[in-house]
Amino acid sequence: MLRLAPSGFLRFSQANSFEVIYGGGESNVAVSLANYGIPTEFVTRIPNNDLGDCAIMEMRKRNVGINHIVRGGERLGIYFLETGAVARSSKVIYDRDHSGMATIKPGMIDWEKIFQDTTWFHWTGITPALSQGAADACLEAIQTANRMGITVSTDLNYRKNLWKYGKKPSEVMPELVAGCDIILGNEEDAEKHFDIHPEGVDVTQGHSVEAEAYTSVCQQLMAKFPRAKK
User: How far apart are the first and last CA of the chain?
Assistant: First the structure.
């Protein structure tokens, strides 16, 4: 996706130009792994236009595989970032409707072909937050990986401003996470996705969370998703 941000700590209302950065939850993981010399392939759906070409070039120059990127959709997803300063928090505005990933459907990606030489599949909770089609395509990938004996990991990555298509995270995420071997997340992710609460802590109050409370969240997640190893 495309990130547009005012330079430095300018607010949206102060900006006359925006810095352009291409990235995203899963692509950031792919780039990090590539930096360690681990072969990676980034699987996504990107529009067949100049902005899509720029996004793919960004992955290619960071040694991320782009052999399984599907071209399609009306546009590239965008988000606008206003970086916070001192007591002012950051702001994010998403503009991802009708993007290539928001309009993806099951069957558009040949997961069995992609997974032929794969040992690990990683996805984040941002993808199923985009649309029902994206959630269904993600489930299709997870189930295929499970059948083929591929390790599956997820970063729950709750984003409240993305879940706008009529489904709550708690209606979508459990079936997806049930197929995962490794679950990454924090106490807010566990609460918003699965109604799992750290014992003795209200995550909405912003208080520090003791280690024991994190342990309780992990234990509840492991009980709910017995496939998970970590």
Answer: 29
Residues in the chain: 230
Among left, alpha and beta (phi > 0; psi -120 to 50; other), residue 100 is alpha
Q: Cα(18)–Cα(103) distance, rounded to whole angstroms?
A: 26
Please list the pLDDT of the chain residue by residue as tens digits (230 residues).
999 999 999 999 999 999 999 999 999 999 999 999 999 999 999 999 999 999 999 999 999 999 999 999 999 999 999 999 999 999 999 999 999 999 999 999 999 999 999 999 999 999 999 999 999 999 999 999 999 999 999 999 999 999 999 999 999 999 999 999 999 999 899 999 999 988 776 656 665 667 777 898 999 999 999 999 99
CATH for 195? 3.40.1190.20
DSSP H or E stretch at residue 143: helix 132-147
Domain of residue 160 covers 104-230
| Structural tokens at position 38 | 């681990």
Structural domains in the chain (count): 1
